[in-house]
Specification:
The complex is a heterodimer. Chain A is an alpha+beta fold. Chain A has 7 helices and 11 strands. Classes of the chains: A alpha+beta, B mainly alpha.
């Protein structure tokens, strides 16, 4: 087809718009993904976590998380005998490089991976003055960094310490449940690399998801249930000392 | 910069989110609300004794209110987006709605009341001055130069009505600041239904003390006689309000101690260590009990005028310091402990940084500068002859 000047005038702006998205690294559309058919959550199987830190490293790499800040991190708990209310907890550099050998032999030790709980009634979205943070129809709490004021009210409102201000963008940031991946049928970066399967992405609206069988047959909890946030990260085998 | 941490903090919690600028914000809005409520004593409750401070209180409230959004603006990661709070507010957000409360208070209450109260003076000034000043005052008349008796009566009635609306608005303004903190359920140091009420009363305390000090200082600077009846009355109101404020705070404290919920041990430790100086020594002992005792003395002992004035000056200054310490302990204290209740972080205040000490000091000087300008433009002194000393006669019926 011959390209006339008229065609060129139409094509050039279209190409410019397309190029903008190419440069921005915007992922391609997910034509088969239907928001209303999903309700995302995550299952953390505490007895399976070995504290290797692979999830923290993968998350940082996948999401360009600045050093010293964490979209996900691992805590090591040490609970001495009956002192369930006063556990000793550590998380050196968020457990990114794993943990040094444990020198305490009495009591029990275990690892607890943490991330945004993608609460259904999330306090962070409630307090955002401009609605820059919101719950998607498929149950993921996201932040629009092009709209966030950086007022930090959401950071204060999160009971789990999951949010931080990205020093590069000066906006609030947190786990996005790798939304750019899960909407394409992939799993999250942290689940992808977990060597023991301690972290599993789960779709509560998918009747075939193994989460349903797991929830039926195991005793699971969410963090700080008294906060009534509708947290959707479920923990199996969680000790009462975890907070 | 390595921030010293004791115990365990969630990794993202180590850095404090709200700095000294956010301490200034409730402190400043508190002074606004308190100053306005003092002004309304004269207007609504006809407490004639405090009349000498009426206009000064209004101008003080305006000066501080104009500065109130600045610390917030400086604190934002994207100040250029701040208008979005007005254009696309998120209705469930306490912070977003505060923007409208602020605007309501500024535009519908304070500016209107000051304009109505000063309208006669402004018209007279516009008639008697020349050059740029004339233009300025003419602009301030907003085209209304009718100062007939009937017109002034309407101003008076309208002003009274606005003050009536203004009292709950002032309560709303500062109660709302308390709500911004009190509604954060994730933070046990803040989360309390008493927070808005404590904020309202502490606002009244700080505003009344600040206007009393400003009145005494400005009268001395002008080499005039301090109206002792006036300061006696203000000090009396300060004492009453302070007692209510302190009782409320103690009620909150008792409730926390007795309940001793999961956060108590952690918060108790914080008060006994990191907040010991700022809360126990400065806020409670120096900033609350001492001024209450001093003001109480003036009520039970027959002291000379000079002694009373000195006591009022000391008690007023300690009060303002105490209320600032209270704001500090709320804002900074609420971020020093981990939401895991297992550790503590440290607040490192910069000096010449965007949210540093220097910025805070400049922001605290700014309202006084604005007040100085306002006082020059619109003298609030009862003995200033309402500008009619300039020789102009009221132009009855002109419009």
């Amino acid at each position: 087809m011959d390209i006339t000047r008229r065609h060129l005038l139409v094509l050039l702006p279209a190409a410019a718009v397309a190029w903008k998205f190419v440069l921005a690294g915007t992922p391609g559309a997910s034509p088969n993904y239907k928001l209303s058919e999903h309700w995302w959550s995550m299952l953390i199987d505490i007895p399976k976590c070995i504290g290797c830190g692979s999830c923290v490293r993968a998350c940082a790499e996948e999401n360009d998380v600045p050093d010293g800040y964490f979209r996900t991190w691992i805590e090591r708990y040490h609970v001495a005998d009956w002192k369930i209310e006063r556990p000793e907890v550590e998380s050196p550099n968020g457990g990114k490089q794993g943990f040094p050998p444990n020198e305490i032999s009495d009591g029990k030790n275990f690892f607890v991976p943490k991330l945004c709980n993608h609460c259904a009634d999330s306090p962070c979205t409630q307090v955002c003055p401009v609605g820059a943070t919101f719950v998607t129809p498929d149950g993921v709490v996201l932040v629009d960094k092009t709209y966030c004021l950086g007022c930090r009210y959401c950071v204060q409102a999160c009971p789990y310490g999951c949010r931080f201000i990205n020093p590069k963008t000066n906006t609030a940031e947190k786990c996005s449940l790798c939304y750019h991946r899960i909407t394409k049928g992939l799993t999250t970066a942290c689940c992808e690399v977990c060597p023991t399967g301690a972290r599993q992405l789960a779709d509560l609206k998918n009747p075939k998801d193994p989460i349903h069988e797991f929830l039926k047959t195991h005793t699971v909890q969410v963090l700080k249930p008294h906060m009534a946030t509708g947290a959707k990260v479920f923990y199996n085998g969680m000790d009462g000392s975890v907070r | 910069m390595q921030i010293p941490v004791e115990g365990f903090m969630y990794p993202n919690e180590v850095e404090l989110q709200w700095s000294v600028l956010i301490v200034l914000y409730p402190f400043i809005t508190g002074l606004v609300a308190g100053a306005f409520i003092l002004a309304s004593l004269e207007r609504v409750f006809r407490v004639q004794a405090v009349k000498p401070t009426y206009r000064l209180a209004l101008l003080t409230a305006l000066s501080f209110l104009l500065v109130a959004p600045l610390p917030l603006q400086l604190h934002l990661g994207h100040p250029e987006r701040s208008l979005e709070m007005y254009l696309t507010p998120h209705r469930s957000s306490a912070m977003a709605m505060f923007g409208f409360v602020y605007l309501w208070y500024l535009m519908a209450v304070l500016l209107l009341e000051i304009w109505l109260d000063y309208r006669r003076d402004i018209v007279l000034k516009a008639q008697s001055s020349t050059g740029l000043a004339r233009l300025f005052y003419r602009a301030l008349t907003l085209g209304s130069s009718n100062i007939s008796q009937r017109s002034l009566q309407i101003d008076e009635r309208l002003g009274y009505f606005i003050t009536l609306v203004g009292i709950p608005s002032a309560f709303l303004l500062h109660g709302y600041v308390g709500f911004i903190f009190g509604s954060v359920k994730a933070n046990p140091w803040w989360s309390s239904p008493l927070m808005p009420i404590v904020f309202i009363f502490s606002a009244m305390v700080s505003g009344i003390a600040a206007v009393m000090l400003l009145y005494m200082a400005s009268t001395r600077l002008r080499a005039r006689q301090i109206d002792i009846r006036c300061v006696d009355k203000i000090a009396q109101y300060l004492l009453y309000t302070f007692v209510i404020d302190f009782s409320l705070e103690m009620l909150d404290l008792l409730q926390r101690i007795y309940e001793a919920d999961e956060s108590f041990r952690s918060l108790d430790f914080m008060v006994h260590t990191r907040l010991w100086k700022s809360q126990v020594i400065i806020q409670i002992l120096l900033g609350t009990l001492t001024p209450i005792a001093l003001l109480g003395l003036t009520q039970v002992l027959k002291l000379t005028e000079t002694a009373r004035k000195r006591i009022y000056a000391i008690a007023g200054s300690l009060t303002v310091i105490g209320i600032f310490a209270m704001r500090w302990n709320v804002v900074i204290g609420g971020q020093l402990f981990s939401k895991s209740f297992l550790g503590y972080t440290t607040y490192k205040m910069g000096f010449a940084t965007r949210e540093g000490l220097l910025t805070a000091i400049l922001l605290m000087i700014l309202p006084f500068t604005i007040l100085w300008v306002l006082v020059k433009l619109l003298p609030p002194w009862p003995d200033a002859g309402s500008l009619s000393a300039s020789g102009a006669t009221p132009a009855h019926g002109t419009s």
